[in-house]
Amino acid sequence: MKIAFYATKPYDRIWFEPLAREYGFSIHFIELPCNEDTVFLAKGYDAICIFVNDRVNAKMIDELYNMNVKAILLRSAGFNHVDIKAAEDKIAVLRVPSYSPEAVAEYAAGLLLSVNRCIHKAYYRTRDFNMSIHGFIGTDLSNKTAGVIGTGKIGQAMIRILEGFGMNVLAYDPYPVEGLGVEYVSLEELFKQSDAITLHCPLTKETKHIINKKSIKMMKDGVYLVNTSRGSLIDSEDLLDGLIEGKFGGVGLDVYEEEEGIFYEDRSTVIVEDEVLARLMTFPNVLITSHMGFFTKEAMEAIAIETLENAYALENGLPLLNKVV
Ligand code: NAI
């Protein structure tokens, strides 16, 4: 099988190159993202392999189909970046449904701890030998209420961590998990009662901008908000307004709705055009990272194995267990 591997970073090669040799696959590593301008590079390949900020729309699906590309191998669990409906009956879209839920949950907890206790700010102060702690006061998480939106694999791992902190956990999910031992409440109740809210649902039509002016208004003053899921779960402009009004104790974002073309790239020498992102960066109680919740050795290894297992199943006519439908 010949695979065109888009949006390659050095760390992708570390995990995929040796494994591809074992499977006997030929991978062409392309640094460019996959989009309407670069899709033609897939000509002559059996599959393309893409990451979270590559977009594949209906027009591109048709082009890939005409080029006889058989599969879109997602190096991710989320699949909101591919037009699944357009791909139906044309190209198999295969994802990695679970690689390390703990990796993302642990990272989300890290963001929560950092914004609460100002660890990200303290790092810079002490590096300058400014040992003042003034302004860094946080709040105990123990005995406070956490609201978890989405109780799938990552949400459940996060619940275990939050319970470990001694937090009382409330959850919202339209498909509650039986026997989880967590209290499910309505979204409205979760917004009203939580001291910290963490997002672990996928991006769908229903969840787009689930955090908006209205929901922010319902939240407690001084609430902490963490998003390691998808940027568009939050209406960034409404978040900005909430931050300006002083609504939030802290906000930790690993994802941003306009992250495509910005995250994963070194943009340190160019002018930032995204004014919302630039303004978000100015708040002392906001910590933004570049979609790296998944980024552990264990997760990278699991992503590489599962992605190539998906390709192997396709090549050998085995059941496509990870096909997105
Ligand atoms: P999952 O599929 O195991 O769980 C998602 C849960 O969300 C399910 O229980 C589902 O019922 C629930 N859900 C669906 N619609 C909902 C709604 N309207 N409101 C509330 N909950 C809803 O997925 P998993 O593995 O837990 O991943 C969650 C998300 O995390 C992914 O969709 C992806 O966007 C994101 N993610 C982020 C990563 C990062 O590096 N920052 C890495 C991996 C995933």
Report the C-alpha radius of gyration, rounded.
21 Å
Tell me the name of the CATH class of the largest domain.
Answer: Alpha Beta
Task: Estimate the global geometry from the Cα principal axes.
Answer: globular
The order of strands across the largest sheet is 8-7-6-9-10-11-12
Total beta strands = 12
For the record, the count of structural domains works out to 2
Mean pLDDT: 97
Oligomer: single chain
Largest sheet: 7 strands, parallel
Please write out the topology:
Blueprint (H helix, E strand, L loop, with lengths): L1 E4 L4 H14 L2 E4 L17 E4 L7 H9 L4 E4 L9 H4 L4 E3 L6 H17 L1 H9 L17 E5 L3 H12 L3 E5 L10 E2 L2 H7 L2 E4 L13 H6 L4 E5 L8 H9 L3 E6 L21 H6 L5 E3 L8 H19 L10
Parallel strand pairs: 1-2, 1-3, 3-4, 4-5, 6-7, 6-9, 7-8, 9-10, 10-11, 11-12
Bound molecules: 1,4-dihydronicotinamide adenine dinucleotide (NAI).
Describe what you observe in this structure:
The protein folds into two domains: 2-99 and 296-315, 3-Layer(aba) Sandwich (Rossmann fold), CATH 3.40.50.720; 101-288, NAD(P)-binding Rossmann-like Domain (Rossmann fold), CATH 3.40.50. The two termini are 23 Å apart. Helix 1 packs across helix 11 and helix 4 (101-117) crosses helix 6. The strands form two sheets. The protein has a seven-stranded parallel β-sheet with strand order 8-7-6-9-10-11-12, sandwiched between helices. 34% of the residues lie in helices and 15% in strands. It has helices spanning 10-23, 58-66, 84-87, 101-117, 119-127, 153-164, 187-193, 213-218, 236-244, 275-280, 297-315, and strands at residues 2-5, 26-29, 47-50, 71-74, 92-94, 145-149, 168-172, 183-184, 196-199, 223-227, 248-253, 286-288. By secondary structure, the chain is α/β, with parallel strands linked by helices. The chain is built from eleven helices and twelve strands. It binds 1,4-dihydronicotinamide adenine dinucleotide. Residues 77-78, 98, 101, 104, 149-155, 172-175, 200-204, 206-207, 228-230, 254-255, 291, 293-294 line the site of 1,4-dihydronicotinamide adenine dinucleotide (NAI).
